[in-house]
Amino acid sequence: MLYDENKLKIALDDVKLNFIHKEIEKIKNLKILELGVKNGISTSLFLKICEENGGNLISVDINDCSKLYSNEKWKFIHSRDDNFSKINEEIKRMGGLNLIYIDSYHEPNHVKKIFYNYYNLLSENGLIFIDDISWLPYLKSSYRENKWVEEMNFKTFEKLLEIKLSNENNFKIEFSFEKSGMAKILKLNLNDLNEPKKIERTRTIKSFLREIIN
User: Residue 146: how many CB atoms within 10 A of its CB?
Assistant: First the structure.
């Protein structure tokens, strides 16, 4: 199948994926990299956009999702998302990127590593969406209480702030805290990224938000 209508409906009903859809639905000839396929819900959304507006999608997952769809606009790579030599080559064959969706391994140093690699292949004015940057649903007594996820999501959020601090003029960043959260990044130029700059006393952010929700 070209894409799954039922999964597309789920994607459009999801507040975060619907937000992405509204951002990209009118962009022509998108070249998309999707890191993390899971059940193919976001994949259906991206393939629908590619069918309507032209474009191509590369999806990467450590699980074999190659049988999900049969679509000439889709290239599935069964691999870790940091297999840069293999994935970068496919991106170059596609002609670069103007959209990246990161929803794979949510650990801050891993997110930083893949962010820096694929950012270099993103066109000027290209977009990056990074899932799972909110720790609020995972706090103690919250509806998804999970200490490890709370810590990883907060540290990912913190890492993105550190990258932004040293790259103020290179990209814009916005955060949504709906559900598990999402970051939206707009690349402003083709400059190389600087290394992150440590933010002192950033834990006060978390303490403040704990006070708000308790």
Answer: 15
User: What is the residue-wise DSSP string for 111-149?
Assistant: HHHHHHHHHTTEEEEEEEEEE----GGGSTTSTT--HHH
State pLDDT tens for residues 94-150. Answer: 999 999 999 999 999 999 999 999 999 999 999 999 999 999 999 999 999 999 999
How is residue 198 annotated by DSSP? P
DSSP code of residue 169 = T
Q: Hey, which bits of the chain come out as E strands?
A: 30-35, 55-61, 74-78, 97-102, 122-131, 171-176, 182-187
Our CA dihedral for 187, 27, 58, 161, rounded to 10 degrees, sits at: 30
CA 184 to CA 165: how far, in whole Å? 16
Query: Cα–Cα distances in Å, from 59 out to 52, 90, 99, 163, 173?
Result: 18, 11, 12, 25, 23
Mean pLDDT estimate for the chain: 93
Which DSSP letter does residue 82 get? Answer: T
Residue type, 17: L
Confidence of residue 210 (pLDDT cuts 50, 70, 90): low
pTM of the model: 0.91
Q: How far apart are CA 24 and CA 75, in angstroms?
A: 20
Q: How far separated are the first and last CA of the chain, in Å rounded?
A: 47
- pLDDT tens digits, 40-84: 999 999 999 999 999 999 999 999 999 999 999 999 999 999 999
